[in-house]
Sequence to fold (194 residues):
Amino acid sequence: MVGRLARKVREQYRRIDLAFRPGRYGPAVLRELLEHTTDLGIARFEHAPPGVESRAVASERGVLAVPVGHPVAAAASVCFADLRGEPFIMLPEAFGSAVRAMFVFGCHAAGFAPDIVQTAPDSWTCVALVAAGVGLHYTTDSAVRQMTLDGVRIVPLTEEIPPVFSYLLWRTGDRDPALANVLGLSEQVLPTVT
Fold:
């Protein structure tokens, strides 16, 4: 999403300088918007966050990344109960990842707490650790579409888990003309989803 929006902004408004700040998750993006250190963000939430303007630009489903040699790799799908006792690689809890929160909730609903053996700062690193056989990783279908998956198989979950949404976020009442131009382009490049 970031690449598509950046390309369109560069084509239409060469004088607008987009400075990217990767590695931030929902709560940090909200804080930076409210502190006026960021003007626009993209972050995942289960529901539109309060206190800022937002527009849902992607609906994502949870999937499981497993090493190709793992018994689950051959399954058409897997349920949370089948994951009891498996080692997991996750984003750190302090990041406030909505995807991690949904995964932990799914495990608790199935009657167990996940065994998180390793944390990593992003899904790319988590998936690389999956390929190395460290554990399994719960992520989104859209995230894995952007990755090289050598040594990794993606397995859908049997349970109907509500989607997590990616939101485009900006401060309420921000009248910056550059932001207005970017938001206008974003409607073409990143249309609203329901």
The longest strand covers residues 53-60. The chain has a mean pLDDT of 93.
